[in-house]
Amino acid sequence: MATRKKPFDPADSPKLALEGRIVTMNGAFKVIARGRIYTQNGDIVAVQDAAAPAPAGFGNTAVTDIGGTIYPGLIDLHNHLPYNVLPLWQVPKKFTNRGQWSRHAEYHSKISAPMQTLAATPELLAAICRYVEAKALIGGTTTSQGITLANQAGIRRYFKGVVRNVEATDDETLPAVSTRVPDVAARDAQAFLARLKKEKTCYLLHLSEGLDPTARRAFESLQFAPGEWAITPSLCGIHAAALRPEDFQTLAAKGGSMVWSPFSNLLLYGGTADVAAAKAAGVPISLGCDWAPSGSRNLLNELKVAHLWSEAHAIFTPRELVAMVTRNAARLLEWDAALGSLAAAKRADLVVVEGVSGDPYLQLIRAKESDLSLVMINGIARFGAEALMRALGFSGESLEVGGARRMLYFAHPAADPLVQNLSLSAAQEALKGALRSLPALARKAERPKLMSEAGLARKSGSTWRLALDEVLDTGVDLRPNLPLRGPGGRTLRAAMMRPLFAAAPPKLSAAVAPLAIDRLTVVDDPDYLDALDMQKNVPAMIKEGLRDLWS
Ligand SMILES: [Zn+2]
Predict the structure, then answer these.
(1) d(CA 143, CA 166)
(2) In the predicted model, is pLDDT for residue 481 greater than 60?
(3) From ligand 1's centre to the CA of 25, what distance in Å?
(4) How far is the CA of 290 from the centre of ligand 1 (A)?
């Protein structure tokens, strides 16, 4: 197939026929040992045995034998994407709730001050968006929480990339998730309940992150009268790590769900949610990476951690874990009519792992980034083995992953103007340089602005900036939404908010030091496992297991 000059419109994606082992993740968990998936115009047209006749209109379509196992695209239900440029933090001590580390001096110097410095440098915005999206894609993610941008007028929008964004779908059949509650409502469990009841789809909320009674209080405060809870089927609690078995019973009885982020929890707290109790109670569970500074680089790592924890505690089967990033996640989003499994009339989002033997669920859990030979979204091949991408008619930026030749295809007729024509390698170089010179960038950010915002806008073509979850109310509430009263009765959350585009905090340049960029993949990072070994809170079983799985 000749390379096209114009980018493929997903609504007009080409007729493709892929042959391989197919893990449908449908209700019967059907696996087709040798099957074919036919796609066109963004959708799956048919999923069937390779011996079956081609569906109508595909009689002349060349069949591409991909030599791999095909899964639904992976859904990451919790990620603070912009932070994924920052390397894994050597967590200095064992924390018991998130209020502790988010106030730690080292957290400020290694994570929040560097990120605020990058965010205060508008010319890096495009590079950050390009880099972190590519990183998710190379790890098999086809749907994720998005990147919030804000302008001087306080208008927010989401970066529009090629990975689906749960908060902004541009697709009326895929209802957007809410992650935002007005502060007034959030201070009152009953008002919060009224807000939840209006929710048509999923509401993602950080809930009880940490393992101690303070963390659990965020869940308890959802009870506004005996037995009356501000929980509806829309509520999906991120982390839910401090919940006791009876809390999971309550969550399940009210129809709530959770996102499990075991690696983040283990890094910070040395323990994670009691998912055995959550499972026993019948709480629907999905997975999320959280972020690179204290979490997984991609879903392939998060699946490995979840698998190791599950094996050690006899909780989830490999199939159940794969369901967490496919059909369960789609169900939580109420997107299951379109995504989460492979069937005719669903969207053509899929990932391919090289090889067709052994347990298909373990195969995905064990996969390294270099084992992924194709990531397709809406019928468009976005990442994959270079030869396969070309065979399917897609041609973009070449790169190596674990020594294998890979290609990225970012072209989109409605591509975000921010990143048009920006290659991943250019974005990576810009960010490496910026992270090396963080102190100078911070000093620059602290200097009084010589140019008006309007002048800056003309110069850079945009006033959009990163809206950081921990600085602005991006709607991704990092702190408990309901009043978490400290001894003095103060609301902890309010104290953390800062106005949009306030001058950078005075300590920024004093706090930051040069940093290395977080690499795109684990498989290309010779230092990753050694750095992990030095983490204080991660159990040896997880460290050894990850070394085994990644080596
Ligand atoms: Zn988070």
Answers:
(1) 7
(2) no
(3) 27
(4) 5
Q: How far is the CA of 206 from the centre of ligand 1 (A)?
A: 7
Number of residues written out for the chain = 551
Residue 336 Cα distances to 30, 316, 342, angstroms: 16, 21, 11
State in Å: Cα 81 to ligand 1 middle: 10
**CATH class in words for 75-116+164-337+518-550:** alpha beta
17 residue type, one letter: A
Give the residue among 240, 195, 194 at the shortest CA–CA distance from 220.
240
Rounded to 5°, the CA angle 297-470-245 comes to 70
Over residues 104-163, the pLDDT tens digits come to 999 999 999 999 999 999 999 999 999 999 999 999 999 999 999 998 888 889 999 999
CA of 255 to the centre of ligand 1 (A): 22
Residue 139 Cα, ligand 1 centroid: separation in angstroms? 19
Q: What pLDDT score was predicted for residue 451?
A: 56
Give me ligand 1 centre to Cα 470, in Å: 10
CA of 252 from ligand 1 middle (Å) equals 22
Three-state SS sequence of 398-422: EEEECCEEEEECCCCCCCCCCCCCC
d(CA 502, CA 508): 13
pLDDT of residue 213: 96
Is the pLDDT at 410 greater than 90? The verdict is yes
| Sign of the dihedral defined by the CA atoms of residues 370, 376, 380, 382, in that order | negative
Q: 241 alpha carbon to ligand 1 midpoint, in Å?
A: 12
Q: Side chain identity at 75, as an amino acid letter?
A: I
**pLDDT for the residue numbered 384:** 98
Q: What are the beta bridge partners of residue 408? A: 383, 397
Span from the CA of 461 to the centroid of ligand 1 (angstroms): 31
Structure tokens at 303: 């699946």
The pLDDT-based confidence of 495 (bands split at 50, 70, 90) is very low
**Phi–psi pair at 141, nearest 5 degrees:** -75, 130
Ligand 1 mean position, distance from CA 458 (Å) = 34
pLDDT digits (tens, 9 = 90+) for 463-479: 899 988 765 544 444 43
